[in-house]
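Hey, can you fold this one?
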Amino acid sequence: MRKRALSRWFNQKLQQSKLSTLMVTCFIAFNLLLVSVIVWLAYQSFSAVTFTEISKARLALLNESTRRGFDFITGVTGTAYSLTSNRELSALLETSGKGRLTQIHQRREVSKILDHTVVVSEGITSVELYTDAFNGVAITTEDRIYPVNTIADSEWFVALEQADGAWVPLRENESGHSLIGYAQRIFNSRGNTVAYVLIRLSRADIVRRFADMPMVLDGQVLLVDTAGNVIMHMGDSAPEDQASSTVSAQNVIPLVDSAWIQEHAERGDDGFEVVSGQSGSAQLVLYSRPAMLQWRLVQTIPVHMLLSPVREAGWKVLAIAVTGLLCSAILACLFVRRIVHPIRQLIKRMRQLEKGDFETRVQLSFTEEYAHLAYGFNHMASQLTTLMEQVREESRAKRAAQTGLLEAQIKPHFLYNTLDMIHWRALDYEAKDISRMIVQLSKLLRIGLSGGRLFIHVRDELEHARCYVSIQSERLPFSIDYQERIDPRVRGYYIPKIILQPFIENAVIHGHPKEDMLRIRVHIHEETGEEGTRVPSGIVIRILDNGQGLPEGWRMEDTSGIGVHNVHQRIQLYCGAHYGVRIGAGELGGVEVIITLPRIETEEQLNQWLGGENK
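Sure. Predicted structure:
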């Protein structure tokens, strides 16, 4: 029901809309859809290609940062080796059998060596020494010398017992700076372990190694060891207030865990992958090749951060597209107005034509279709003007005919009465030949007028011809042999009136027979049209005489006689171009006239031929 109502409303709006509005709306909608699809496809394809290229560039930069950033390892291990191989330090750690004051002095000298090492070594936060050689004297934190039992409970201490030196993850101290360190054992001359040196590195020390490549620190950067454990965090997501935080780097939950890192980097290769973050946003994860210690960097960057330049470019392209769409809409409005203007002019002229202004015309347009419309409208207006003039002429002729008909209805009545009076007066004087001529003339006139009818029966037309022959026989010096051969079926058919008398009159006046008798033959029969041809069935009337015939080179078009032309034109006017009169040489030596007419049997058929005029 809603669909039907919506469809009805939509159709109603379409019917009420103007053509220009529909054209502009369709143009804008089509262009908007086209621009939207093109911009969206271009943005998607460009984003995909750009994202891949940016990811590859970022990965190459991460590998380079890994290679250059971990060069400090050589310096740190060199510092540790210099301490372990320092003979003075080894001698100072030999405290057995020495007094308390001597041990205090040796401890101070060891502290000076450690402080000097911190000063001359770049990127080291502190150097600590763990030994039991000075357990007999008081411990001071400023000296950075601690008993071995201080680190005995550390997880990395067990691994250090199996190696001379190792990189170890460290918990942050009270200052919150040290996060990673390098520990190495110090041996005496007998090969026994006398101390453990621990070099601490702070977050700032490590981050400073990557400061010359700021893009490496975008997002979150993880320092991962050989086992895939996260040593420390760097970048935007790293904790900032380390002084107030007691949470270690190992306790921070990264975007990717050790299992993910080992799964994707187990072959020691580099790569990148898009994963979903904790908030559901897409993150690009890049992992570099391992460095010297098989440590690597794992960087996570929000995808929207990488694509922000692309997104800005996309908005600019969209703004340009919208501007172009607005410009095209303005041009479309101007173009549509130019297209619709001829139609509006045509509508205006049609309304003038409806009001009766038949002289209005439309100027020809610059396009072929509108030119055809304008030509058709102008031709229609011209035809209407011509038809209106014809209607006016026909109306005047009709009024004149009606007036003449009223007058003709009076004149025959008077004429018939006068002829009838002459007929009876001739009988009073016993002039029978005059009486007979008057009777024939009266019949001739009565049939000729026929009450204004255009068609009469064949028998009445034959009667009219016989009356004319009878009258002419009384006045001519030669006799007339008039004979008829009529098909009985055609006597009741309708034919135009007074079509025989003009040709009989021509035979009487122009025939001049060589004999003393003029022979006239009238044959009427029905003729059936041939099947498959355009010749219809009808009536054929043949009029023959034995007169002198036609002059040489005679043509009916050249004759000046009124009767022949009148009959031929009336037949073609009433019955059509298939019918008419043909004149040629006849069998009796004179002229033969052939008249072809349609077969009209009933009054209904006659009304169809005449269009209902002769009722």
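The first strand starts at residue 126 and ends at 130. Let me know if you want another pass with a different chain boundary.
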